[in-house]
Amino acid sequence: MKKLFISSCLFALTALIACGGSDNNSGDKKETEKKAEPSLSDNPVYLKGLALVAQDDCVTCHQVDNKFMGPSYREIANKYATATAEEKKAVAQRIINGSTGIWGTVQMTKHSGMSTEDAEAIVDYILLLKK
Questions:
Q1: From CA 72, how far away is CA 61, in angstroms rounded?
Q2: pLDDT (tens digit, 0 to 9) for every residue of the chain, 131 residues total?
Q3: What spatial distance separates the first Cα and last Cα of the chain, rounded to whole Å?
Q4: Which residues lie closer than 8 Å to 106 by C-beta, 6 or more apart?
Q5: What phi, psi does 99 have (nearest 5°)?
Q6: From CA 125, how far away is CA 45, in angstroms rounded?
Q7: Residue 110 C-alpha from the chain's centroid
Q8: Residue 75 vs residues 9, 42, 54, 115: alpha-carbon distances, Å
Q9: CATH fit for domain 40-131, picks 3.40.640.10, 1.10.10.2910, 1.10.760.10, 3.55.40.20
Q10: Which long-range contacts (CB under 8 A, 24 or more apart) does 42-49 make?
Q11: At 126, which helix (H) or strand (E)?
Protein backbone atom coordinates (compact mmCIF):
# COMPACT_ATOMS: atom_id res chain seq x y z
CA MET A 1 0.00 0.00 0.00
CA LYS A 2 2.90 2.34 0.85
CA LYS A 3 4.44 1.71 -2.56
CA LEU A 4 1.19 2.60 -4.30
CA PHE A 5 0.84 5.77 -2.22
CA ILE A 6 4.47 6.82 -2.92
CA SER A 7 4.07 6.02 -6.61
CA SER A 8 0.89 8.09 -6.76
CA CYS A 9 2.61 10.98 -4.99
CA LEU A 10 5.60 10.83 -7.33
CA PHE A 11 3.26 10.74 -10.33
CA ALA A 12 1.29 13.73 -9.01
CA LEU A 13 4.50 15.62 -8.22
CA THR A 14 5.88 14.89 -11.70
CA ALA A 15 2.64 16.03 -13.30
CA LEU A 16 2.62 19.18 -11.18
CA ILE A 17 6.20 20.04 -12.15
CA ALA A 18 5.53 19.32 -15.82
CA CYS A 19 2.55 21.66 -15.77
CA GLY A 20 4.53 24.49 -14.27
CA GLY A 21 4.02 23.86 -10.58
CA SER A 22 1.67 25.67 -8.27
CA ASP A 23 3.07 29.10 -9.17
CA ASN A 24 1.19 29.07 -12.44
CA ASN A 25 -1.76 31.41 -12.01
CA SER A 26 -4.10 29.53 -14.35
CA GLY A 27 -2.21 30.69 -17.42
CA ASP A 28 -1.90 34.33 -16.29
CA LYS A 29 1.62 35.07 -17.42
CA LYS A 30 3.20 38.45 -17.15
CA GLU A 31 4.04 39.55 -20.64
CA THR A 32 6.34 42.42 -21.29
CA GLU A 33 4.72 44.96 -23.50
CA LYS A 34 6.80 46.01 -26.41
CA LYS A 35 6.52 49.67 -27.19
CA ALA A 36 5.48 50.12 -30.76
CA GLU A 37 7.70 52.37 -32.77
CA PRO A 38 5.94 55.61 -33.48
CA SER A 39 4.42 55.76 -36.90
CA LEU A 40 5.24 58.60 -39.25
CA SER A 41 1.52 59.25 -39.50
CA ASP A 42 1.63 60.29 -35.83
CA ASN A 43 4.51 62.71 -36.35
CA PRO A 44 3.39 66.37 -36.61
CA VAL A 45 6.45 67.26 -38.73
CA TYR A 46 5.49 64.53 -41.18
CA LEU A 47 1.85 65.57 -41.27
CA LYS A 48 2.67 69.25 -41.86
CA GLY A 49 5.14 68.45 -44.64
CA LEU A 50 2.78 65.98 -46.26
CA ALA A 51 0.03 68.61 -46.32
CA LEU A 52 2.40 71.20 -47.80
CA VAL A 53 3.62 68.98 -50.65
CA ALA A 54 0.05 67.94 -51.37
CA GLN A 55 -1.18 71.53 -51.68
CA ASP A 56 1.76 72.65 -53.82
CA ASP A 57 2.88 71.21 -57.14
CA CYS A 58 5.64 69.02 -55.63
CA VAL A 59 3.97 65.75 -56.63
CA THR A 60 4.06 66.85 -60.26
CA CYS A 61 7.79 66.08 -60.34
CA HIS A 62 8.54 64.05 -57.19
CA GLN A 63 7.32 60.76 -55.76
CA VAL A 64 8.23 59.15 -52.47
CA ASP A 65 10.01 56.06 -53.80
CA ASN A 66 10.39 56.52 -57.54
CA LYS A 67 12.42 58.97 -59.56
CA PHE A 68 10.07 60.86 -61.81
CA MET A 69 11.00 64.21 -63.32
CA GLY A 70 13.01 64.95 -60.22
CA PRO A 71 14.59 62.69 -57.64
CA SER A 72 12.41 60.68 -55.28
CA TYR A 73 11.93 62.01 -51.78
CA ARG A 74 13.84 58.99 -50.46
CA GLU A 75 16.83 59.77 -52.69
CA ILE A 76 16.83 63.32 -51.36
CA ALA A 77 16.43 62.10 -47.78
CA ASN A 78 19.30 59.65 -48.11
CA LYS A 79 21.58 62.25 -49.70
CA TYR A 80 20.91 64.78 -46.94
CA ALA A 81 20.48 62.30 -44.07
CA THR A 82 23.35 63.89 -42.13
CA ALA A 83 22.80 67.44 -43.32
CA THR A 84 23.68 70.30 -41.04
CA ALA A 85 21.17 73.03 -40.26
CA GLU A 86 22.85 75.25 -42.88
CA GLU A 87 22.60 72.54 -45.53
CA LYS A 88 18.92 72.05 -44.73
CA LYS A 89 18.34 75.79 -45.13
CA ALA A 90 20.17 75.68 -48.47
CA VAL A 91 17.87 72.89 -49.68
CA ALA A 92 14.84 74.93 -48.56
CA GLN A 93 16.18 77.92 -50.51
CA ARG A 94 16.57 75.73 -53.61
CA ILE A 95 12.89 74.82 -53.27
CA ILE A 96 12.01 78.52 -53.22
CA ASN A 97 14.50 79.75 -55.85
CA GLY A 98 14.64 76.67 -58.05
CA SER A 99 17.88 74.98 -59.04
CA THR A 100 19.59 72.92 -61.68
CA GLY A 101 22.58 70.64 -61.86
CA ILE A 102 22.34 69.01 -58.44
CA TRP A 103 20.26 66.05 -59.59
CA GLY A 104 20.84 66.27 -63.31
CA THR A 105 19.97 68.69 -66.07
CA VAL A 106 16.25 69.07 -65.37
CA GLN A 107 15.59 72.43 -63.75
CA MET A 108 13.60 72.54 -60.54
CA THR A 109 10.79 75.04 -60.80
CA LYS A 110 10.86 78.13 -58.59
CA HIS A 111 8.37 78.26 -55.76
CA SER A 112 8.85 81.94 -55.04
CA GLY A 113 5.47 82.26 -53.36
CA MET A 114 6.43 79.70 -50.72
CA SER A 115 7.56 80.94 -47.33
CA THR A 116 10.93 79.93 -45.92
CA GLU A 117 9.10 78.29 -43.01
CA ASP A 118 7.05 76.11 -45.36
CA ALA A 119 10.08 75.18 -47.47
CA GLU A 120 11.98 74.18 -44.32
CA ALA A 121 8.97 72.13 -43.17
CA ILE A 122 9.01 70.30 -46.50
CA VAL A 123 12.72 69.57 -46.09
CA ASP A 124 12.08 68.22 -42.57
CA TYR A 125 9.28 66.04 -43.96
CA ILE A 126 11.48 64.66 -46.73
CA LEU A 127 14.31 63.89 -44.30
CA LEU A 128 11.94 61.73 -42.26
CA LEU A 129 11.66 59.42 -45.29
CA LYS A 130 15.29 58.29 -45.24
CA LYS A 131 16.04 54.59 -45.14
A1: 9
A2: 444 444 444 444 444 444 554 444 545 544 444 555 568 888 999 999 999 999 988 999 999 999 989 999 999 999 999 999 999 999 999 999 999 999 989 899 999 999 999 999 999 999 999 98
A3: 73
A4: 69, 70, 100
A5: -165, 170
A6: 6
A7: 30
A8: 70, 23, 19, 24
A9: 1.10.760.10
A10: 43/128, 45/121, 45/124, 45/125, 45/128, 46/125, 46/128, 48/121, 48/125, 49/121, 49/122, 49/124, 49/125, 49/126, 49/128
A11: helix 116-127
| Nearest to 101, CA basis, from 125, 61, 71 | 71
Full DSSP string of 55-117: HSSGGGT--SSS-SSS--HHHHHHHTTT--HHHHHHHHHHHHH-B-SSSSSSPBPP-TTS-HH
